[in-house]
C-alpha cells in the first residue's frame, strides 16, 4: 500500500510539472514553484516582487509593504497546504495572495446565511434525468455574458457583492432563453436598491457591499418590476443611493425556484432552465489557479455566490488515477483569476456545499428604451 501511495505521488508530481511547463512561457509568471518546494520560501522576496508587478500592487507606506509581504509568505504556506488537500487542482499565488483569509472573506465574498425563503420562492418540480447530455456548457450557446469583476475599482475598496453577480448572471441566462437576446444586467441596481429582508429576523436584509442572498435579489426584482442594463446603471463597486429608472427595465423575473439537493436534478435544471445561482464555500478559491477542485476536506458552510453554467463528464485527476465529473462555475473576480475567471469543482458529494443552495429563475420579456 505504501509503495502504491508513493507511486501515485510521484506520478502526480510528474504530471503537474509537465502541465506547468506546457502552460508557462516564463516559469516565474504563474508563480507555482513556491507552493511545491519549501526552499522557494527563501526566494519569497523575489516572488513578491513578481506578484506586485503582475497584479499592479502598490502600498502607501513601508510598514504596509512589510505587513503585506508577511501575509504573502503566510499565503505561500497556505497554498501549499491547499495543494496537498486538493491535489487535483493547481494552487499557488493569485491576486489575493497579500490578503489574510479574514480580509479575503470580508472583501470578496458576502453571501449571507439563508434564514428562510422569500414569499414568492417555489420548489422546482422534479425533472426527467434519463436523457441528459454527458457534457453541457451554456457559454457555447450564447447564454453567458463575459466574466465581471466585483472589485473592478480597487482604489475605492472591495465590495462583498458576489450575491448580486450570481443573481444577474442567472437572470441574464433566463432572459436569453425567453427572448433570444443576451443582455448584461446591472449588479449596481441590486447593490443600491435591493434591501429585501427576512421579517422573522431583525437586520437580516440584503445590504449591498455588506452581503446579500440571490433569492432575496430575485424577490426584489419581482417586486420592483425588473433590472436595467449594466450600461444604463453601471457598476461602481461601492454602496450608493438608489436611482432605479423603471422606464429602462430590460429584464424581469417571472418566477424563481429552489432546486432539490440532488446532483441529477441540478444538472437537469441547468440544461432545461439556464444557468443557476448557487452558493459555495470559497475557502480553496483564494489560492485556486486551475484544474478540478476536489478537496478531501471542505466545509459546507457557504459564503460566496457564484453562477453554475455547465458541467463536464470527466477530467483527469492524476493523484487519484481516475477521471471525475465536474461543475463549471462562473465567478465574479475578473478574468485574471482561476481559469480565465472560471472555477471547476467536483460534481460529487456536494463538495464545499455547492449543491446545497441552488436556484433557478425564469424571465419574461419587457419593453425597454
TrEMBL record:
Gene Ontology CC terms: lytic vacuole
Signal peptide: 1-21
Domain Cathepsin propeptide inhibitor: 48-104
Domain Peptidase C1A papain C-terminal: 132-362
One of the GO BP terms on file: proteolysis
PROSITE patterns with a match to the protein in the record: THIOL_PROTEASE_ASN, THIOL_PROTEASE_CYS
Pfam family, one: Inhibitor_I29
Cited InterPro entries: Papain-like_cys_pep_sf, Pept_asp_AS, Pept_cys_AS, Peptidase_C1A, Peptidase_C1A_C, Peptidase_C1A_papain-like, Prot_inhib_I29
Gene Ontology molecular function: cysteine-type peptidase activity
Coiled coil, from the record: none
Record key words, sorted: Disulfide bond, Glycoprotein, Hydrolase, Protease, Signal, Thiol protease, Zymogen
Family statement: Belongs to the peptidase C1 family.
Record protein name field: Cysteine proteinase
Species of provenance: Lupinus angustifolius
Source taxonomy: Eukaryota, Viridiplantae, Streptophyta, Embryophyta, Tracheophyta
Amino acid at each position: 500500500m505504501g509503495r502504491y501511495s508513493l507511486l501515485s505521488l510521484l506520478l502526480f508530481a510528474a504530471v503537474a510539472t509537465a502541465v506547468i511547463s506546457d502552460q508557462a512561457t516564463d516559469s516565474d509568471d504563474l508563480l507555482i514553484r513556491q507552493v511545491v518546494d519549501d526552499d522557494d520560501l527563501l526566494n519569497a522576496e523575489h516572488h513578491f516582487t513578481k506578484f506586485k508587478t503582475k497584479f499592479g500592487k502598490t502600498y502607501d507606506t513601508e510598514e504596509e509593504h512589510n505587513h503585506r509581504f508577511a501575509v504573502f509568505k503566510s499565503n505561500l504556506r497556505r497554498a501549499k497546504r491547499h495543494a496537498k488537500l486538493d491535489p487535483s487542482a493547481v494552487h499557488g499565488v493569485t491576486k489575493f495572495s497579500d490578503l489574510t483569509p479574514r480580509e479575503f472573506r470580508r472583501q470578496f465574498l458576502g453571501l449571507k446565511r439563508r434564514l428562510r425563503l422569500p414569499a414568492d420562492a417555489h420548489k422546482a418540480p422534479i425533472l426527467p434525468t434519463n436523457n441528459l447530455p454527458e457534457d453541457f456548457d451554456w457559454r457555447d450557446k450564447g447564454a453567458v455574458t463575459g466574466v465581471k469583476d466585483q472589485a473592478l475599482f480597487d482604489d475605492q475598496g472591495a465590495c462583498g457583492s458576489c450575491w448580486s453577480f450570481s443573481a444577474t448572471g442567472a437572470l441574464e441566462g433566463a432572459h436569453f432563453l425567453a427572448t433570444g437576446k443576451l443582455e448584461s444586467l446591472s449588479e449596481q441596481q441590486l447593490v443600491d436598491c435591493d434591501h429585501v429582508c427576512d421579517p422573522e429576523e431583525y437586520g437580516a436584509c440584503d445590504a449591498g457591499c455588506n452581503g446579500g442572498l440571490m433569492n432575496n435579489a430575485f424577490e426584489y426584482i419581482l417586486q420592483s418590476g425588473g433590472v436595467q442594463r449594466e450600461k444604463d446603471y453601471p457598476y461602481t463597486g461601492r454602496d450608493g443611493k438608489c436611482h432605479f429608472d423603471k422606464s429602462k427595465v430590460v429584464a424581469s423575473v417571472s418566477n424563481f425556484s429552489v432546486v432539490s439537493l440532488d446532483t441529477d436534478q441540478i444538472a437537469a435544471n441547468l440544461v432545461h432552465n439556464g444557468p443557476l445561482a448557487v452558493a459555495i464555500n470559497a475557502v480553496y478559491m483564494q489560492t485556486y489557479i486551475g484544474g478540478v477542485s476536489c478537496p478531501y476536506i471542505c466545509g459546507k458552510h457557504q459564503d460566496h455566490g457564484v453562477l453554475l453554467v455547465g458541467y463536464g463528464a470527466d477530467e483527469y485527476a492524476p493523484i487519484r488515477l481516475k477521471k471525475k465529473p465536474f461543475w463549471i462555475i462562473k465567478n465574479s473576480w475578473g478574468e485574471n483569476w482561476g481559469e480565465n475567471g472560471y472555477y471547476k469543482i467536483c460534481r460529487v458529494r456536494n463538495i464545499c456545499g455547492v449543491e446545497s443552495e441552488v436556484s433557478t429563475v425564469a424571465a419574461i420579456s419587457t419593453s425597454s428604451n
